[in-house]
Specification:
Elements: H1 5-8, H2 18-25, E1 28-32, H3 38-47, E2 52-56, H4 81-92, E3 97-101, H5 108-115, E4 120-123, H6 130-142, E5 147-149, E6 152-153, E7 156-162, H7 169-172, H8 189-193, H9 195-198, H10 200-206, H11 217-236, E8 249-254, E9 259-264, H12 265-268
Helix pairs in contact: 3-4, 3-11, 5-6
């Protein structure tokens, strides 16, 4: 089928000007992890007419992913997340240049190459993969890029943006000084998600009563829209970089309590472990 980019994304015009849409068409975003939030963020950017995506994820879809992960369909169970998600992304936006890797790049030079020319990066790496989160964040910082990350729980999400000239991911997540301890470091979820906001959902995982952090499809979809829209606004120039909320401040949205506000995750729980 011979499709036309301008026709496919014409409903964007009005909110975005044609010049702003062209900026999206020329922009590149790198997404590390395409599970519960990364896959939806990538798909939303593709729907907006983004010009280039790099996605990678070594994981495979399994049955518990089906309640929230966009690529977790019956036919994709047991398949690599990046490969399966890439097929979906090509159907969404056939004009987009797409690189999909079924392994997480560990070589610094390869990460630098993948990040070269990108507008921003998204860290959607699992909570338990802290050592790789640091490796990716350091590469993003070397590239001088903003690093978007947004954990979800229940019906809420917290969007954080790391500035390459500001707080590091290690500082944000209270990382041990010794890198050898990073593979075993548990993210301070009480700090990031807030027990006052998410209550027992966080405590149950932190204290071992439940081996996972409870969440649902609605908040995963909201998260994808929140992060992808903020990135699109930034790329098009509708959101100035000086207007971004930068870590340790974060945008917090809770659909149950109907809250939308800015919070400082370090001031609320400065000593969270």
């Amino acid at each position: 089928m011979n499709l036309d980019y301008q026709v496919c994304f014409q409903r964007n015009i009005g909110f975005f000007s044609r010049e702003e849409q062209q900026r999206l068409k020329e922009a590149k975003v790198v997404v590390a992890g395409v599970g519960g939030v990364g896959g939806i963020e990538a798909a939303t950017l593709a729907k907006m007419g983004l010009g280039e995506l790099v996605v990678f994820d070594p994981g495979v879809f399994d049955e518990p992913d089906m309640n929230r992960q966009l690529g977790a369909t019956v036919s994709n169970i047991g398949r690599n997340k990046a490969v399966a998600t890439a097929e979906m992304l090509r159907e969404i936006n056939p004009f987009m240049k797409l690189t999909a890797l079924d392994q997480a790049p560990t070589d610094d030079a390869e990460l630098d190459r993948l990040l070269a020319g990108a507008a921003v990066a998204i860290d959607a790496i699992d909570y338990l993969g802290f050592d790789y989160k640091v490796k990716f964040a350091q590469a993003v910082r070397r590239a001088g890029l903003l690093n978007f990350t947004a954990p979800i729980s229940g019906v809420g999400t917290t969007m954080l943006v790391l500035d390459p000239a500001g707080m590091t991911l290690e500082e944000l997540y209270n990382a041990p000084a010794d890198p050898a301890q990073w593979p075993h470091h548990r993210l301070p979820l009480a700090q990031m998600l807030g027990p006052d906001r998410f209550g027992d959902l966080v405590r149950d995982m932190d204290e071992g009563r439940r081996p996972y952090l409870s969440n649902c499809a609605g908040i995963a979809m909201l998260n994808g829209g929140l992060v992808a829209t903020e990135i699109a606004l930034l790329i098009t120039g509708k959101r100035l970089r000086t207007e971004l909320v930068i870590a340790p401040e974060a945008i917090y949205v809770d659909l149950l309590r109907r809250e939308f506000k800015t919070v400082n995750v370090k001031e609320e729980h400065p000593h969270a472990e």
